[in-house]
Specification:
Its main location: membrane. The protein is mainly alpha-helical and about 120 residues long. The chain has one domain (about 1-115). It has helices at about 1-25, 35, 40-60, 65-90, 95-115. The radius of gyration is 14 Å and the shape is globular. The mean pLDDT is about 85.
């Protein structure tokens, strides 16, 4: 269980760090997923900061269990909000199911980290 949980937190941590960095450094219109959805540059940068911090928190989960659990809970809220946004926009396909799957995984990680005592 510990190996699987560590692998999932490392994988998603890396994905969110890369995604957050891309949101922060994206230049020009429609270069980031949030910009393509019509968010302002400031909102895109805010989302990028949240993704970057959450990803960094997940990457530290094997050393700091509480930080990893808090990061996973924050990313759950962020991805749940993304799901609600895309559902309200009547998006279908990956734009709808990707945040839903990620939110479910982050909820499981947020619950599993303190229970397994990884760290």
């Amino acid at each position: 269980m510990h190996i699987a949980l560590t692998a999932v937190t490392a994988l998603y941590g890396g994905v969110f760090v890369v995604s957050g960095t891309g949101q922060l450094t994206g230049r020009g219109p429609l270069r980031t997923p949030a910009a393509a959805c019509g968010f302002s540059p400031a909102a895109c940068q805010g989302i990028g900061v949240l993704e970057l911090l959450g990803g960094a928190g997940l990457l530290t989960a094997s050393y700091l269990t509480v930080a990893g659990a808090v990061a996973a809970a924050g990313l759950f809220l962020l991805t749940a909000a993304a799901f609600l946004y895309h559902d309200g926009q009547e998006d279908r396909g990956p734009r709808l199911w990707a945040p839903a799957v990620t939110a479910a995984v982050m909820l499981c990680v947020a619950v599993a980290l303190p229970l397994t005592g990884v760290g």
